[in-house]
Amino acid sequence: MTTLIRMAAAVLIVTAGSASIRAREQAVPPPALPPLHLSIPSVAPGQVARERMLLLARAQPQQQEEFVPLDQLPPQERLPAAPLLVGAYAFVLLMLFGYLVSVSRRLTAIQREVDRLDADLKHNGRG
Asked: Which of 94, 123, 79, 66 minimizes the C-alpha distance to 9?
């Protein structure tokens, strides 16, 4: 049973690793913030924070307002679904197989116990 769990973990690690490597290869660095040119002594204390917030707001990407088809998305926004789907199905099938093996072993042990008890009853003359 532990071998099955280790195999499932290995499949998940390999799948997640390949997806994260592809995501890193396609990643685009975030836009650099423009330098903050403020002379501190002549600026009011709240002005610096307000200027910094405005700069951060301008540097963030615009929020999407409507549906955009997948073929129109930039490459860094696309998530490769095939490795994740294969990994999920492999994990579920391995867990199902492991569960069936576990149930089979338990039923075999119970059948042996019932056979032993039946033999004991016949041997003692009560059956």
From this structure: 94
